[in-house]
Amino acid sequence: MILLKGKNTAEKIKSGIARELESLHGTVPAVSLVRVGEKPEDLAYEKSAVKYLEGLGFHVVTRSFPAEITDGEFQNEFLKINRDPSVNGILLFLPLPRTLDSKKITGMTDPDKDLDGIHPVNIAKVFSGDDTGFAPCTAEAVIRILKSENIPVAGKNVTVVGRSMVVGRPLSMLFLRENATVTVCHTKTEDLKAECRRADILVAAAGKAKMLNGDFVKKGAVVIDVGINMGDDGKLCGDVDTDSLEGIASMVTPVPGGVGTVTNAVLAEHLMRAFRKQEKP
Amino acid sequence: MILLKGKNTAEKIKSGIARELESLHGTVPAVSLVRVGEKPEDLAYEKSAVKYLEGLGFHVVTRSFPAEITDGEFQNEFLKINRDPSVNGILLFLPLPRTLDSKKITGMTDPDKDLDGIHPVNIAKVFSGDDTGFAPCTAEAVIRILKSENIPVAGKNVTVVGRSMVVGRPLSMLFLRENATVTVCHTKTEDLKAECRRADILVAAAGKAKMLNGDFVKKGAVVIDVGINMGDDGKLCGDVDTDSLEGIASMVTPVPGGVGTVTNAVLAEHLMRAFRKQEKP
Questions:
Q1: What is the reported pTM?
Q2: Which positions in chain B touch A124 (Cβ < 8 Å)?
Q3: CB pairs under 8 A between A and B
Q4: Topology of A26-112 in CATH?
Q5: Which residues of chain A neighbour B218 with C-beta distances below 8 Å?
Q6: Over the range B32-41, which residues count as b (16 or more CB within 10 Å of their CB) and which as e?
Q7: Which one, of A158, A173, A85, lies nearest residue A128 by Cα?
Q8: ipTM for the whole complex
Q9: DSSP label at B244?
Q10: Model confidence pLDDT, tens digit, residues B172-190
Q11: A137-260 CATH
């Protein structure tokens, strides 16, 4: 069983960005990371994104607001960030506190600065197979790993476990665009094991630690683990019990070091693309 | 094998609309059917929609433009229709001629008047399982037949053949919202027969006359035929060879008289909902 690390794919994307940044002769694209409250997972993602994007040479501004901010106040602030011509890309940490009108706020995002594809225009583009917008970075990272490792997708049976708006749903549409036959499973699926065992490519994106093991995997299948959970042993783990796939799966992405590694690279690439979209012709 | 006609479902929807229209005490919601060119299928749908909506008591205005109209001219005209406060709902026949900027025009539609769900906001809502917008009428008609006939969907295996933006994709998302396990197939699917034979509910929405027969159907499955094609014998037929399902499928929708019958009723219901959205509070 091959451990399908994200590093190679991330490096390829990174070197493309580095070349493009060089060609800008000193101009530095800027991103605004917008966070409301202090959720540990937001702080962890923010820290990793800041390090990665600054490491590449981008200008990163973190904007944080107290969890108690009113809906009106936050909308004002968010609108200012949105309209600021010095901000090329925006990453808003979701979900927002329930006191904020999330639907309205995501709809306010400038579609051309919308690095994680939360605006309806970008969602609709992903849904319709139009690649001129922004897909959610994690969903796109999965496709990028498969492409970069030359794993065939067209015509293959892909089972996606999980139907979130961040991974499951958009990823299903990205797979459809690559001509895979896509099955979407979830908590209400009657025979999850059978659905998973049909898959040439099995994607675990349910957010439940080690919920899939070797019993769910067809001999020779490629397993992509999108989960990031805290295991009982206090260590990070995915949605897949990786050890149990030995001798069954042909490849599996590790957690950490798999999809997550590529997600940051895709985010950086989106920032580069957002900058290009805003360049004066 | 039961022939699952659309009539019962359509009648239920129709009587709900009639009650609601009565409660308006003489106010008559109005719809604008917008057509560019003279494609026979547009003319056929227009004729049937006009008859149906006028029969219910709605005010119907048909607006037709020559296929040669310039992009700028049509956008001007479409904007006027859109902004006209006396127009509560709009049905734009798609696809538009290639000379027109279809993406821009669908994006100009007022989401609250968008009866067939072509605006990105409505597309994104369907994608995310939010039922406050408008889904494409045909896709919604399929779900309505199943619900009205008390055919269980949750947890069932649903295979959708076809991935268009009018039926296949949105319908897959509507099935996901009903907690079905959904598989989307298409021309690049390697073993279409096997994918179809797994389905408790099989939906044919590929637009190819009689492409599915009894070999593609599991014993006892429910088959929904969304296709409307002209057969070799010059008669209307669906994507399913209905006769060949005898003794295999438990139910099948006929063509004509199945999904299409319900589509007009859903269109009328959308017009009623659009009118409500525009009422002053």
A1: 0.95
A2: 120-121, 123-124, 127
A3: 87
A4: Rossmann fold (3.40.50)
A5: none
A6: bbbbbeeeee
A7: A173
A8: 0.93
A9: G
A10: 999 999 999 999 999 999 9
A11: 3.40.50.720
